[in-house]
Amino acid sequence: MNFNKAEFAASYGNFSQIPPQQRLEIAFAGRSNVGKSSLINKILNRKSLARVSSVPGKTATINFFSVDGIYFVDLPGYGYAKVSKTEKKRWSELIDGYLMSERNIALVLQLIDMRHPPTEDDLLMIDFLIQNQMPFIVVLTKADKLSSSARRERLENFKKEIPYSEQIKMIEFSSVTGEGVYELRRIIEEVSNED
Questions:
Q1: Rounded average pLDDT over 14-25
Q2: What is the pLDDT of residue 96?
Q3: Number of domains composing the chain
Q4: Is residue 1 part of a domain?
Q5: I need a labelling partner for 21 at 20 to 30 A (CA). Which of 12, 36, 67, 97 fits?
Q6: 36-57 pLDDT, tens digit each
Q7: Which residues form the domain of 161?
Q8: Alpha helices per DSSP H over 76-180
């Protein structure tokens, strides 16, 4: 797969606007400000294809990126407190609508900030993915911000904090150092070729 062959395709604020699925899709989920856009840019070797913001809750739409015949789908970040209830409801309907629809989702990359325990929303999302038998991996972002001892400690804690952790593939990732990029590309290529 040519990860450099990528372009922004479309953006949707309501699920009803999303056209029927045309290609295999790789979805990126996680709480606000966990680093979804930075991850997408790093995998695609781009600086700002996916817009990165220091303001949590900035991605309020589902964004589709065309990548060599498949779609990368950047879902809105969940769990951001400083948005209205109406906006939270719209985001929830957008994410739920997308994940529950009959789309060809080959893989969900569930992002969790490695520095902290998973939030209640993170655990709800993991539970949802397990219950619906959706293929997913957990990407532990911002790994570069931890010392090696703090990192080991967090990895041990994740085993207790995340249900079924022993059965879940977890990849440590840093958009700063590029750690985890090659492994993520390899997994994406594998699931894309299975179809």
A1: 87
A2: 81
A3: 1
A4: no
A5: 36
A6: 989 999 999 887 777 655 444 4
A7: 6-194
A8: 85-100, 120-131, 148-161
- CA quadruple 69, 51, 180, 113: dihedral positive or negative? negative
Q: Strand, coil or helix: what is 80? A: coil
**Dihedral of alpha carbons 121, 16, 49, 181, sign:** positive
158: CATH:
3.40.50.300
CA 133 to chain CA centroid, nearest Å: 17
In angstroms, the CA 5 to CA 57 distance is: 28
The residue assigned the tokens 């080959």 is: 106
Q: Which of 5-14, 93-102, 132-141 has the lowest mean pLDDT?
A: 93-102
125 found inside a domain: yes
* Secondary structure of 31-68 as H, E, C letters: ECCCCHHHHHHHHCCCCCCCCCCCCCCCCCCEEEEEEC
Full-model pTM? 0.90
Q: How large is the greatest C-alpha to C-alpha distance in the chain, in angstroms? A: 47
Identify whether 142 is part of a domain. Answer: yes
Which letter does DSSP use for residue 70 in this model?
E
Give per-residue burial for 166-194: e unless 16+ CB within 10 Å, then b.
eebebbbbbbeeeebbeebbebbeebbee
Q: Does 154 fall in a domain?
A: yes
pLDDT value for 98: 87
Express as a percent the part of the chain with pLDDT over 70.
88
